[in-house]
Amino acid sequence: MNTDIFEVIEPGLLTTVQDLGRYGFQKYGIPVSGAMDTYSLRFANILIGNAEEDAGLEITVLGPKLRILSHSCIVITGADINPKIDGDSVSQWVPIDVHPGNILTFGPVSDGMRSYLSVPGGIDVPMLLGSRSTYTKSNMGGYHGRSLNIGDIIKANYLKPNVEISVKALPEELVFYPFGHVHDLRVVLGPQDKAFTTEGISTFLNSEYTVSIQSDRVGYRLEGPVVEHSNGFDIISDGSSLGSVQIPGDGSPIVLMSDRGTTGGYTKIATVISTDIYKLAQAMAGDRIKFSLVNIDEAENLLRTRESRITQFANSVRYPRPDKKLNVLVDETSYNVTDMNGREIVLMSSRTGQVRHIMTANVSGRKFRFDVQIESED
Amino acid sequence: MNSIFDRLRFLQAGDQSLTVEVGDTINPEVNSKVRKLNLAILDASIAGVREVVPTYRSLLIYYNALVISSSDLIDQIGSIEEWTDSQLVYRARIISIPTLYDGKYGPDLQFVARHAGLTTEEVINIHSETDYRVYMMGFSPGFPYLGGLSPKIATPRLETPRAEIPGGSVGIAENQTGIYPVSSPGGWRLIGCTPLNFFDPYMDPPVIVNPSDTIRFVPLQSESEYLRIKNEVENGLFEVHAEDI
């Protein structure tokens, strides 16, 4: 039962609908897009009882001004952006009740670059190629393929969280803010570290870089010491992964982010590890960046630790413990359905009305991605 | 000399992506091997593999490192011996692309002919006589990187790119030819336009050609023919001609 939740009075600098990205179509040249700081979006969803993949608003530096149209609740995470309801400051990282006629505004951002706003069940925009993320450059996905504008009406999938949620502070090890202005990004070398001289790699790992004003959702351009190639800067175009540090002919690094082109022809010296991408997503022009090297085993361990803490927190926020597992019947055999992080998808007994879930299922080692809508019988 | 490596080369591209190189040049044999490996990986249904992006001579594999480690993934791909085509995925095809080559739809056709020292008719013949392999897709949604342009009609890019090029425009840039899938700015020399809809996110699949397909441009005789096909495309009545190789 989707319902109007916001009317946009002022759009802010760049406010878009994003989820965790559009995977599966890069072979056709369609970028992943999705939230830049996926942790902040995931926490915004967890804290409101949503699936982590649900769509929220990504708010960039200058927040929008929104009129609340329904009695509901919201969570704002990510950059500290001084949200106010009817002029009174409200907290981030906790659910806030909102009422029809309330005006939600945002002050100047005081820490970080991107905030995330979740609503119960996620923002309701059509699913396009498996995702609700906006890719503005091709007018694809999200709200009519563009950033929000004056007069837009935003719908939530429902008005009340569909699980019981306990309001809890994030455990210390998952509090990533304040984001600050100096960011240490851990990288693994490759894919093209062989295209650089020893000095080039050493320059890259031991210098401080400054975030250029020309940074955006496609990539973060960095200014600083030139990284020396050993034998040319161009390669036969290959796939560009998230966080890869591309070094074009001028020797200045560009870290590839959510809206990156799927392929590129410049050498990539190293790649920022998954656990550290959010730091860059929250970095502003003028912030300082330092890279440090880890090996692939260390990166995998960091990721496992981080994800198990998030899972633990997510499980502690929702209660009562879910009572029904979602099963899929294929040829009379029943399979449990898991989400993208391998957790079992469960149906909450307290859910009413419609429930919508984007899920990935592994059935006999085969992967399926589907958008499920579950309706109550009455 | 086919430039295919004796063994696959694995390059870490972050902690959840892996680049697999099969060779070091742009040529049909290397690209065919990319395609076969792509199909074999999809066919193997390796748990944790999220997406495979085939390019000229390599593949980028996105995976979930919580499900499979880099070293296990490398082992599994290394052990895929039988690189056979799968029933589950598309075959290599020749796709016919009806194209109107003329000065209105291809404002640089005259320039390309002058630059090559040929008549426009000769340019059209040379361009449409060749079959072009889709080596990969990228740059923008649905954009095919085509190989095989005759050097006789290679032409430098515009010095100043156009602000808006209509979707479907067929162009030449140096020794490449390509099709703009959607309206966008661009600096390629335009010699014609196809009425086909090369990219539409609401279509399933959103593109009409796949990596490793072959494209054949089929000249249209008149603007009315172009408009008739365009009308059929818009109403979902046009069937793209595809032939298995």
Write a short abstract of this structure.
Chain A has 378 residues and is mostly beta strands.
Q: How does this structure look, described?
A:
The complex is a heterodimer of chains A (378) and B (245). With 378 residues, chain A is mainly beta. Chain A has 3 domains: 3-174, no CATH class; 182-299, Cyclophilin; 324-375, no CATH class. Chain A contains 4 helices and 25 strands. In chain A, the strands form 6 sheets. In chain A, strands 12-18-16-17-14-13-19 form a 7-stranded mixed barrel. Chain A has a 6-stranded antiparallel sheet with strand order 7-6-9-4-1-11, with no helix packed on it. The radius of gyration of chain A is 21 Å and the shape is globular. Chain B has 245 residues and is an alpha+beta fold. Chain B has 2 domains: 4-78, Gyrase A, domain 2; 93-244, Cyclophilin (Beta Barrel). Chain B is 23% helix and 31% strand. Chain B has 5 helices and 14 strands. Chain B has helices at 28-44, 70-78, 109-116, 120-129, 223-234; strands spanning 4-12, 17-23, 49-54, 58-63, 93-99, 131-137, 144-147, 162-165, 169-173, 176-179, 184-186, 189-193, 214-219, 242-244. Chain B has a 5-stranded mixed sheet. A 4-stranded antiparallel sheet of chain B has the order 1-2-4-3, with helices on one face. The longest helix of chain B has 17 residues, at 28-44. The chains are: A mainly beta (378), B alpha+beta (245). At the A-B interface, strand 15, strand 18 and helix 4 of A face strand 2, strand 3 and strand 4 of B.
